[in-house]
Amino acid sequence: MQEQKTEVVILAAGKGTRMYSNTPKVLHNIAGKTMLEHVIVTAKKISSEPIHLIYGHGGERLKDLINDSQIDWTEQKEQLGTGHAVKQVIDKINPENNILILYADVPLLTAETLEALILCKQSSSIALLTASFEQPGGYGRIIRDKAGNIVKITEEKDATEIEKLIREINTGIMLISGQFFSTWLNRIDNNNAQQEYYLTDIVELAIVDKQQISSYITTNIDEVFGVNNKQQLAYLERQYQRMQANKLLINGTTLADPERIDIRGTLTVGKDVKIDINVIFEGDCYIGDNVVIEANSVIRNSTIGNNSTIFVNSLIEDSIVESNCQIGPYARLRPQTHLKESVKVGNFVEIKKSTIEAESKVNHLTYIGDTEMGSRVNVGAGTITCNYDGANKHLTQIGDNVFIGSNSALVAPVIIEANATIAAGSTITKTVADSNLAITRTKQISIENWQRPSKNKQ
Ligand code: UD1
Ligand code: CA
What residues are annotated to the active site? Predict the structure, then answer.
């Protein structure tokens, strides 16, 4: 017999009333990515069949975010229960496949757990993912007979006092043989405390049809934890961040405090990297060997080369910092900044869309925008590239070994050729030739015995 394929159904129709938000529940983020995207990423790891996404509220916003040809969008106009939700794809699924039910508000489920569930199913017609909870309140309970076989799932609201003592809960995640999918879903009614069509009722129908039910009991509670409110969202965020911090530690990164680092994306780290507290990584970040990142820095979609140091409170965004650089404290690298080897960028310096060649220094209180800077340039404190004329942005070109005196304004477009010197306080509007000194301020005059103004007597 050919191995059965898995076809995924993701339930995402719920409104999420308890989030008290105008954003649909499943579009809230865990580690910088929506819960729905987390679940889709996991689904794609185990299946290349169509992924049926059952949506209800905020469908347009979901579609704006997720542009993926593997997704089959299926609307559930009214939310009449999990059974009703799944029924929406009855005509779409392939009866030869196994149908895997996932929840878009259960974001931390891993592909490994799903693979274990798929393995467990074997010759049974339903495989349930269950867990043992200290406080099972609110969940559907797994009812087993004396031999340990599952006989039904009872929702909390329909449960007897004795059933409520059962700790084994239904995570909601299950695998169903496609061949029984439509017959069972068509037989479900809403004859229960909530007058909903319960997907869980297929368990009893399977037993009537003499089909086997298997289960996989996961011990990873966070993986099957669903989000209904912001407190639960924050809890999963912390758990996820802890997991990531632990991975870094195990792989040799030094973290000042694993509780105080946030990774919202993918972080690739070299050897002997030290990260102080409250550092945030966003998007795709690559950190080389021996990098030190000091407290409160934010690194977004950027690369930091070997042996570079990022001092406290720096923000680096869509930039490349090559090796042996020193950035900050209090530096801001805006998008499209490229710093070559051994560049120094000091405090209160902002750099945007600029390339700075090796060994140049921009140490204090400076704005460099739309600039091509050579190597071994020294930019004095308070230097500004005036890149914007009110309508357009213009380029500043600075050659190798240029010295720019403090508090200079370089009015772009402008070229300062190699080895030139700009006297402090100059406003440069024209090309400065190779090895020239440019000075634009008025000559200093001195008036002897200068009398300062005094206050008028009344
Ligand atoms: C469901 C299970 C319960 C399980 C629990 C785990 C049923 C009847 N009960 O209960 O056994 O312990 O999940 O969290 O299945 N949804 C739709 N359309 C609907 C109804 C729900 O898309 O018409 C989606 C919701 O958005 C949510 C998920 O299905 O993501 C679960 O729905 P919810 O109403 O929270 O089910 P529970 O009552 O918690
Ligand atoms: Ca729920």
Answer: 364
Q: Which residues pair with 153 in a beta bridge?
A: 142
Counting the structural domains of the chain, the total is 2
Cα 202 to averaged position of ligand 1 atoms, centre (Å): 14
The Cα 120–Cα 407 span in angstroms is 71
Centroid of ligand 1 to alpha carbon of 81 (angstroms): 7
Q: Which of 82, 163, 192 to mutate to test the pocket of ligand 1 (most atoms within 8 A of CB)?
A: 82
Integer angstrom CA distances of residue 245 from 83, 250, 261, 413: 38, 9, 7, 46
Cα(174)–Cα(370) distance, integer angstroms? 55
Residue type, 275: I
Identify the CA nearest to 345 among candidates 308, 393, 396, 397. Answer: 308
User: How far, in Å, is the centroid of ligand 2 from the Cα of 171?
Assistant: 9
Contact between residue 12 and residue 62 where contact means Cβ atoms under 8 Å apart: yes
Residue 39 belongs to a domain:
yes
* Nearest-atom index, ligand 1, CA of 16: 26
Helix, strand, or coil (residue 385): strand
Q: 256 and 218 share a domain?
A: no
**Residue 212 included in any domain:** yes
Indicate the pTM of the whole model: 0.93
* Structure confidence at residue 2 as a pLDDT band (50, 70, 90): low
In this structure, what DSSP letter does residue 242 have?
Answer: H
- Per-residue pLDDT tens for 334-362? 999 999 999 999 999 999 999 999 999 99
- 199/255 same-domain check: no
